[in-house]
Predict the structure.
Amino acid sequence: MKVTLTFDNGPTAPVTSKVLDVLTGHGVKSTFFLVGENLTDPANRAVAERAAAEGHWIGNHTLTHSVQLGDSPDLATAEREIGEAQRLIGELATPGQLFRPYGRGGVLDRRLLSRPALVYLQQHAFTCVLWNSVPHDWDDPDGWADACLADIPTRDWSLVVLHDLPTGAMRHLPRFLEALESLGADIVQDFPPGCVPIRDGRLREPLDHLVVD
Ligand SMILES: [Zn+2]
């Protein structure tokens, strides 16, 4: 049973710093999918640099996290939300250019991507990383850990979406990691192939169910 942990919507310096401390304490490497505009704050930029220096991967989670690409299906939105965020992430991007679209409520549906966004991701050699386990830490800050621990054994390889946001949820991260270790879970940094529909710009499986017409 494998588990991959990802942290979205940050960095938010104080929370992200604590998450990094906990991950380091458990020897866990993860991926942080950053909201690009957060990096204009020097404290957030510094903690993102720390995450990269400590071996975590750094991905793009849109510039503003304000509009789903499928709800604004024009090229200008795709270029701004993906391209401008990537410019802010700059040399922190590793490995390659990882992109995770904004899926409101963790829902994987046709609002996730637009045709121009899909073309943009392919032309610019992005790797698109989705998910298969969403324990809703943002709206269940005290219950998410147990929900996630019940969900993880239901599949061979879970790609979990968490958030390094000031909701209070991350105070349960130490207990969550200890419980994962007790379950014998193998916590890995790589992503389950089924959650990576585009790798280095190459479409690996049909995405029509995630793209607005
Ligand atoms: Zn998000």
